[in-house]
Amino acid sequence: MIPRPLTLALLLALGACGPLVQIGGNAEPPPSLLTLRATSLGAPGGAIDPARSLLIAQPSVPGALQTLRLPVTTSDTEVQYLKAATWIEQPSKLFQRLLVDTVGARGGVLVLSERQSDVAAARKLTGQLIDFGLDARGSPQVRIRYDALLSGDDGKPIAARRFEATRPVASEDPATVGAALNAVANEVAAEVATWVAG
Questions:
Q1: 44-67 CB burial, b ≥16 within 10 A, e <16
Q2: Which whole-number Å values give the CA distances from 131 to 150, 164, 198, in the listed order?
Q3: Interatomic CA distance for residues 13 and 11, integer angstroms
Q4: Could you give the 3-state DSSP secondary structure of residue 114?
Q5: What is the Cα–Cα distance from 121 to 140, expressed in whole angstroms?
Q6: Does pLDDT of 117 surpass 70?
Q7: Among residues 11, 135, 146, 198, which one has the fewest Cβ atoms lying within 10 Å of its Cβ?
């Protein structure tokens, strides 16, 4: 057993080292966080055709998008990140949620996410979110490119398609770029919803 005076001395020395766990880190919190919001939402409920049920998976992304920061393509071989622009979640998660909301708003399709993987779906939508950021080569514009793959319940591919959209931005401040990306993401999600419903 450690003598009481020695225990007290050890505790005081440990306390002088500062906290063992730092919650939130030392960095200043960002003034605001960016997110995506679906512009077309339908009312829940209604008749569901099980043969048209769809599991929407979180898309895979390249290394530049495996972060909360917003990538800026400055040349064919260089990527930087937009200062003071921070997503609330990684873009792949935000885009997946947007797809779930948008496709589900069309009605007639039971849309599932991977959190509901215990429910068997007749089809599965997977894909790669290749571009999701600001392209500063030439006139600045936001760009989204999503390569989608639709598979049956047996895992065999049914169809594949590339979805891409751009929009010019007048300013490179985070609020302007975030709003433009939200608009373009909704445009792509609406095209995906029409495609999977066809």
A1: eeeeeeeeebbbbbbbebeebbee
A2: 20, 9, 25
A3: 5
A4: helix
A5: 40
A6: no
A7: 198
Q: How far apart, in whole angstroms, are the C-alpha atoms of residue 150 and residue 86?
A: 31
Q: What average pLDDT does this structure show over 10-19?
A: 50
Cα–Cα distance, 23 to 4 (Å, whole number): 31
**Cβ-count burial of 39 within 10 angstroms (0-12 exposed, 13-18 middle, 19+ buried)?**
middle
d(CA 125, CA 153): 11
HSE (side-chain half, CA atoms, 13 Å) at 79: 11
* pLDDT tens, position by position, 167-182: 999 999 999 999 999 9
CATH topology of domain 48-197: Rossmann fold (3.40.50)
Query: CA-to-CA distance for 144 and 133, rounded, in angstroms?
Result: 7
The two beta strands, 157-168 and 54-56, are unpaired
Sequence-distant (≥ 6) Cβ neighbours of residue 81 within 8 angstroms: 67, 69, 70, 71, 72
Q: What are the domain boundaries of the chain?
A: 48-197
> In this predicted structure, what is the pLDDT of residue 31?
78
* Local structure of 14: helix, strand or coil: helix
